[in-house]
Design goal:
5-stranded mixed sheet; single chain; disordered N terminus; elongated; alpha/beta; Rossmann fold
Length: 255
């Protein structure tokens, strides 16, 4: 977690999503979150890294103009890469330069939470119940051409899901271990493979990747699970990340 101290006041939770410039996508995601937290007593603001409205900079600066100084920043990202290590901190540092009393804490990504492992295992188990011919599982994640942390995190997740008695492997869209180079070899060995997309939603990138995989040789018998798609358990993960920040803030500001 990353802590930046400044003034101390009311704490506001900001959930930071990737977002997209494609029309209607951010609005759809906003509706997903309204449904996800429909019954939860959780106050939060949504902000996007991409798009023209409700950007992280716009949301934070608007709240600062209303007298808010302290922010819990919860990246709605499964794994740490450029958005986590660079984009979000740089936006917040720029704002803090103009408004020094501001302080904020950035939570860990969601993918290392045990509940994410449980969600993935449930997807695998549900598929195996319906299809007993599956020979292996491949976890498909975004990855990074710059950072190794996403690959390490996905491999750790695969280890935690290795309870079904069949091989579980990982591939990425970008960086070392990318699916273009490695998936065909996996499918030659295990034609009946279940691919689980480790993404928050079955959006454009997931659909495009599925199409590319189906066009590969040896992909005739591949089965795809759905992405996480804002299942109810995701709310627990986010609330736990907020609780972790509150504990950390109490320690930091008590010293």
């Amino acid at each position: 977690m990353q802590v930046y101290r400044g003034g101390l006041d009311v704490v506001v939770n900001i959930l930071v999503l990737h977002g997209m410039n494609r029309p209607g996508v951010n609005e759809s995601v906003r509706e997903n979150f309204e449904q996800l937290f429909n019954d939860a007593q959780l106050k939060y603001h949504l902000a996007f890294l991409e798009g023209d409205t409700q950007t992280l900079k716009q949301v934070v600066e608007l709240l600062i103009s209303k007298g808010i100084k302290h922010f819990n920043i919860i990246p709605i990202l499964l794994f740490p890469a450029k958005h986590y290590f660079e984009d979000i901190p740089n936006i917040l540092k720029d704002i803090k330069r103009n408004y020094p009393p501001m302080n904020y804490i950035i939570a860990e990504p969601l993918g290392t939470h045990q509940t994410i492992s449980n969600i993935v295992k449930n997807k695998i188990a549900n598929t195996l119940i319906k299809n007993d011919k599956v020979q292996s599982v491949v976890l498909l994640a975004h990855g990074s051409s710059t950072y190794t942390e996403p690959r390490q995190a996905v491999q750790h997740l695969a280890q935690s899901c290795d309870v079904f008695g069949i091989p579980i492997q990982t591939v990425l869209l970008y960086g070392e271990g990318n699916y273009v180079e490695h998936l065909e070899k996996m499918l030659k060995q295990y034609p009946q493979t279940l691919i689980v997309p480790l993404f928050l939603r079955d959006g454009y990138l997931v659909q495009r990747t599925k199409q590319n995989i189906r066009q590969q040789a040896f992909a005739e018998y591949v089965t795809f699970a759905s992405a996480i798609n804002f299942v109810p358990d995701l709310a627990k993960v986010i609330k736990d990340r907020i609780n972790e920040l509150e504990v950390l803030a109490n320690v930091c500001y008590a010293s």
